[in-house]
Specification:
The protein is α/β, with parallel strands linked by helices. The chain folds into two domains: 123 residues, Rossmann fold (3-Layer(aba) Sandwich); 106 residues, Orthogonal Bundle (Arc Repressor Mutant, subunit A), CATH 1.10.10. Helices cover 46% and strands 10% of the residues. The chain has a five-stranded parallel β-sheet with strand order 2-1-3-4-5, sandwiched between helices.
Length: 272
């Protein structure tokens, strides 16, 4: 059995204890470490190299975005899943651009937390449709890095196909159907992709592929029905259909996506 090794990061010991008690009953998830702030998290991650870090974003000392960025530098193959009380899309987009694999609101049920960790391990995504569309749209609009474009040679043609369909928002099951593959084969391709480009999740892989110019968010024909370049609507639709998407209730009022310096909303209190 593939067991996901998880580190819990939160400045509230009672919350860490609750998560630890929840996850200890899951045979495919093992809590291997804990930390009470961002600096401790970096030390624990460097020592243990966990598969997943489940982390709060408002803690003493190092902020959530910078902690995420540093964790990814210390251990690129560790997936950072944010557990937050904030549903401010601008801040969440900033976390994803720093390297987070996904996020959960603290209002999520115990079942949703467990299923989301499993989804990350399976190469699926844990994002709301609107946030997914915002962050992918930003990456798609940025100029591709020509110096990194040749790096796609490291991926096989089949892996590039899988990555392109993932970028368009298809689930593992949908990719398997489109390419006439088994679900386990799609998961294997995603694991290989993650390993080759040094990431830990589908979200990171798609963003990296967009930045390097390996894939785009166009439809296979390259145009929408109106003849214009396709936008991120197919991605938003597909993410919205995922059974493990636990964040469907976000505010649909769009704001400008976050920069890396965005702080949590000051009018929202720290959740206990």
């Amino acid at each position: 059995m593939d067991v996901a090794r998880v580190v819990l990061v939160d400045d509230h010991p009672v919350l860490r204890e609750g998560l630890r008690n929840l996850l200890k009953h899951e045979p495919d998830i093992e809590v291997v470490g804990e930390a009470g702030d961002g600096f401790q998290a970096l030390q624990v991650v460097e020592a243990l190299r966990p598969d997943i870090v489940l982390m709060d974003v408002v803690m003493p000392g190092l902020g959530g975005i910078e902690t995420t960025r540093r964790i990814k530098k210390v251990s690129p193959t560790t997936a950072v899943v944010i557990l937050t009380a904030y549903d401010d899309d601008r801040y969440i987009v900033g976390l994803l651009e720093a390297g987070a694999a996904g996020y959960l609101l603290k209002s999520a049920s115990a079942h949703e937390v467990v299923q989301s960790l499993r989804a990350i391990r399976a190469g699926e995504t844990v994002l709301s449709p609107t946030v997914a569309a915002a962050v992918l749209s930003r990456a798609a609009r940025a100029p591709a890095s020509n110096s990194l474009h040749s790096g796609s040679d490291a991926l096989t043609s089949r892996e590039l196909e899988v990555l392109a369909l993932a970028a368009r928002g298809l689930s593992n099951k949908e990719i398997a159907g489109r390419l006439s593959l088994t679900l386990s084969t799609v998961k294997s391709h995603l694991v290989n992709i993650f390993s080759k480009i040094g990431v830990a999740s589908r979200t990171e892989a798609v963003l990296e592929a967009l930045r390097r110019g390996w894939v785009d968010l166009q439809t296979p024909s390259g145009e929408s029905a109106s003849g214009e370049t396709a936008d991120v609507a197919p991605v938003q639709k597909a993410f919205g259909n995922e059974a493990h998407n636990t964040q469907a209730g976000l505010n649909d009022q769009r704001r400008n996506p976050a920069t890396e310096d965005v702080a949590p909303p000051k009018d929202m209190g720290k959740a206990h």
